[in-house]
């Protein structure tokens, strides 16, 4: 069995199929880890969602920013933007089934045997591994439960700093923001939701989340979607995945298998 981690698909079913053909993916033998952002901006979000769902246990999916956006749009809490390409999903006969399946996905996936951990965006430096799992479960349990609509109604991007005393929606919003939106932050770990682009182009004091000093999860091999386009050349223990790229994972390490 071979495990491949896949970067953001962004609703591009045709390119996803080309990528899987290039790596010779066999759903009966191999496994895919999807780093979130399966949908939106591309022309075929519905096909992507249906295909990945159909893979069953052959696919692991962590939630990204676009999945939370889709769930919020579907409930009428967030308006569609001109860039959104979610209409097919929202009008599909299996819409409710697909959206429920999404709500049951995780924010983090860890394989102890491989020693690789998958998230969409990142893990705050002040969280230990056990805290990262526990905090993710707090959001996952709400999304998968009867109170998921209230969580999505109260979703905000403005909670950018972790504090152990955070409670209620502020706490859940920070956890969700960290897992699905974090890219750059300052040395104290405050998230910057607007910064994007190469590391060398950022102002002084701003750094990729994985370069924050004294991170408590420095022992993990972290795979995540590189939607910020870090262009970072020294990422030991970190594996930023460009969109529609495949990273082959094994106990001996990881290597880029293909890029679409």
From TrEMBL:
Stored Pfam families: Metallophos
Entry-linked InterPro entries: ApaH (IPR004617), Calcineurin-like_PHP (IPR004843), Metallo-depent_PP-like (IPR029052)
Enzyme class: hydrolase
Gene Ontology molecular function terms on file: bis(5'-nucleosyl)-tetraphosphatase (symmetrical) activity
Domain of life: Bacteria
Residue ranges constituting the Calcineurin-like phosphoesterase domain according to the UniProt record: 1-157
EC number, as in UniProt: 3.6.1.41
Key words, A-Z: Hydrolase
Catalytic function, reaction form: P(1),P(4)-bis(5'-adenosyl) tetraphosphate + H2O = 2 ADP + 2 H(+)
Matches recorded under PANTHER family: CYTOCHROME-RELATED (PTHR40942:SF2), PTHR40942
Family membership: Belongs to the Ap4A hydrolase family.
Role, per record: Hydrolyzes diadenosine 5',5'''-P1,P4-tetraphosphate to yield ADP.
Protein's recorded name: bis(5'-nucleosyl)-tetraphosphatase (symmetrical)
Organism listed in the record: Methylomonas defluvii
């Amino acid at each position: 069995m071979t495990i491949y981690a896949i970067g953001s698909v962004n609703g591009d079913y045709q390119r996803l199929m080309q990528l899987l053909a290039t790596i010779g993916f066999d759903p009966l033998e191999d496994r895919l880890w999807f780093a979130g952002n399966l949908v939106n901006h591309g022309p075929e979000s519905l096909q992507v969602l249906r295909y990945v769902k159909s893979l069953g246990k052959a696919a692991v999916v962590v939630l990204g920013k676009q999945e939370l956006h889709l769930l919020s749009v579907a409930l009428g809490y967030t308006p569609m933007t001109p860039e959104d390409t979610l209409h097919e999903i929202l009008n599909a006969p299996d819409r409710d089934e697909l959206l429920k399946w999404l709500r049951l996905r995780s924010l983090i996936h860890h394989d102890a045997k491989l020693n690789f951990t998958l998230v969409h965006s990142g893990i705050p430096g002040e969280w230990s591994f056990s805290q990262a799992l526990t905090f993710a479960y707090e959001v996952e349990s709400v999304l998968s439960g009867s109170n998921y609509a209230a969580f999505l109604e109260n979703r905000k991007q403005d909670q950018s700093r972790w504090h152990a005393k955070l409670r209620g929606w502020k706490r859940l919003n920070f956890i969700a923001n960290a897992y699905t939106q974090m890219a750059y932050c300052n040395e104290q770990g405050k998230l910057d939701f607007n910064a994007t682009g190469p590391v060398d182009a950022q102002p002084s004091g701003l750094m990729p989340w994985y370069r924050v000093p004294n991170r408590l999860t420095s022992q993990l091999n972290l795979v995540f979607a590189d939607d910020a386009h870090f262009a970072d050349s020294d990422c030991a223990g970190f594996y930023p995945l460009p969109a529609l790229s495949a990273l082959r994972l094994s106990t001996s390490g990881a290597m880029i298998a293909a890029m679409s």
